[in-house]
Design goal:
Layout: H1 3-13, H2 16-36, H3 40-49, H4 58-67, H5 74-78, H6 84-96, H7 101-108, H8 119-130, H9 139-148, H10 150-167, H11 174-189
């Protein structure tokens, strides 16, 4: 399949708002890939398809994850909407024949982040936070940081997500904490 095919499928699969978000993430991911020397095609596909499973109802998310053998933690079961990321990675492989491990990993990590994130993983995580349709306090500053330093942008995005979740008294996924700690350690060792 080519990008045009993916766009057509997403247009039929997602609401108009979610489709526009996905297009925004795609465009932002491509721009960041150019800025940081990542693979542009992988960024385009991962950015476009990252929310492929986002509008699957929560009860079906859990059923589909179980059917595909996706390992779920307590944090996943307490906040199942984050499972749309690993499920999307599985579904784009099964339904769209996306067989690129780097693309699938970036899609799988876009909600929580984690340890050992590749440049592509970081780009998709940050692009999801800053695409042009996102509006929240601090997003303009994060957009600026993303143009200067990808690791600092990722750390800032993690911080923003954690503060948001604490204020909502929601679960913080252990992968987010582990990813934040690792990027902080990596930055301190440079």
């Amino acid at each position: 399949m080519i990008i045009r095919d993916y766009v057509s499928i997403l247009q039929q699969r997602l609401s108009s708002k979610r489709f526009q978000h996905s297009m925004g993430v795609k465009d932002t991911a491509v721009a960041l890939a150019k800025r940081y020397g990542a693979n542009i095609h992988q960024a385009e596909v991962a950015g476009l398809l990252h929310d492929y499973a986002r509008e699957i109802p929560t009860n079906l998310l859990l059923q589909k994850c179980e059917a595909f053998g996706i390992v779920m933690s307590i944090a996943d079961r307490c906040d199942p909407i984050i499972l749309h990321a690993p499920l999307a990675a599985t579904l784009v492989k099964a339904e769209l024949a996306v067989d690129d491990k780097a693309i699938c990993q970036a899609i799988a990590l876009h909600t929580t982040g984690g340890m050992g994130m590749s440049l592509l993983d970081k780009i998709i995580y940050v692009a999801d936070c800053i695409e042009p349709h996102r509006h929240y306090p601090g997003v303009d500053k994060l957009r600026e940081v993303a143009q200067e330093d990808m690791d600092l942008a990722l750390l800032t995005a993690f911080d923003h997500s954690i503060v948001y979740l604490v204020e909502k008294r929601s679960w913080i996924h252990p992968n987010t904490i582990a990813g934040r700690n690792q990027i902080l350690q990596d930055m301190n060792n440079e």
